[in-house]
Amino acid sequence: MKKILSSTLAWVLAVFCALALLLSSIEGLVSERSARQAEAVRSVQQASAANQHLIGPMLERQCTERWEALRGEGRERTSVAESRLIVQRWPAEQLVASTQLAMEPRYRGLYKVNAYLSRWTLQARWPQGLPAAPAALHADGQVQCEAPRVWIALHDVRGVRRATLQAGGQALTVSGGTGHPAYTQGLQATLAAPKPGEALQLDAELELVGSSDLALVPAAADVQWTLNADWPHPSFGGQFLPVQRTVRDSGFEATWRVSQLASGATAALLKDAPVCGADGDASRGCLETLAVSLIDPVNPYVMSDRAVRYGLLFVALAFTGLGLCELLSRQRRPVHPVQYALVGLALATFFLLLLSLSEHLPFGWAYAASGLACLGVMSGYVSTVLGGWRGGLVFGGAGAFTLGLLYWLLMREQTALAIGSVAALAVLAAVMWLTRRIDWFALARPEAPSA
């Protein structure tokens, strides 16, 4: 008996290691499907529009100073016309922005991309108006300035569906591009030459398509941005969180207020700094943003990956439960290592079934269907293995508890460690209680030969 018990334990350990390799393969499959989803997102962004960020409006004027310079010596001394370009840019003193965002999801096969249509209303003010033309640096220099223009830079200009600009109540002719060497994508319009010192107000309306993320660079002395969306799962990012936000099942509303006392965006903009990334450090001189991501809180691949990571633990619990059912059953029918392997394969199939169904069903429904199917198969099989329905019922109940616990852990990401630790202690205590009267030495002691 002792030799049989040792051999069984060795085979069960070998089965456990084989199942570990199988679960590792399933985890690799989850990663592959997740990579395909990311590729689908890139495909939609290439065909439509990527995430969007908006910079501006920015007021700009180009002036040219021309003068005569003397070159050469003696009789060869000649007069040469020279010039220099002067580019002046002024961020708005006040910027009030309002955005209505409506989701327009796109699909690539099974994969969904959170695309959107955003309607922007921008009101930018320069209370001091346009400054006077710059002074000449040369004694005989003459400065001539072009008509000022205003530009708005975008991350992906393909997303522009409509754009109108007004200054002083008069519509402006909008053209593509910004004319800026660093922020090339966007739109611009030329203003009728305003009088120096006359207050200037620009009103803009944009319809902008994008996907996944939306951001505004607070490039003004005082910025207020209100965003309303019909998506109930925002993730606020950038370098400033909203001062007010309301998240409902039907969508969310958020308001940002930022002044130049707190933000270095206007100074960085005048230095042609790049926009800060998702984890960008604004102290390095990048453009700060007010940003929001439109996330799926129950991503099937993220949830499946987290579930598979608990796979070995639940295989160990299943083997422990099967061993306890074998020890505590009155029939004391031994369970063959092959039968342990079949039970482990059924549990591994649960994770594969969960991955495949979650691509077509909401994750909760996919989890329930996968769990019920695999529990039904395992409980019926264990009932036959143990020679009675009680053992199968007990095993099925324990399996339902562990799968329910796993789902709870998946839904409670922030407290998963605490819940898992308490549950592990509770399971260990239950095993110790159920086996407290078993004489383990007697199980390993050779049986006396019958007379």
Can you describe what's shown?
Helix 3 packs antiparallel against helix 5 (337-358), helix 4 (311-328) packs antiparallel against helix 5 (337-358) and helix 4 runs antiparallel to helix 7. The longest helix has 46 residues, at 2-47. A hairpin with a 2-residue loop joins strand 16 and strand 17 (251-259). The chain has helices spanning 2-47, 265-270, 300-309, 311-328, 337-358, 363-386, 389-411, 416-434, 440-444, and strands at 52-71, 78-103, 106-108, 111-113, 115-126, 142-145, 149-154, 160-167, 170-171, 174-176, 186-190, 200-211, 213-216, 220-229, 234-238, 244-248, 251-259, 290-294. It is an alpha+beta fold and 451 residues long. The strands form 2 sheets. It has a 16-stranded mixed beta sheet that branches. It has a two-stranded antiparallel ribbon with strand order 3-4. The chain is elongated.
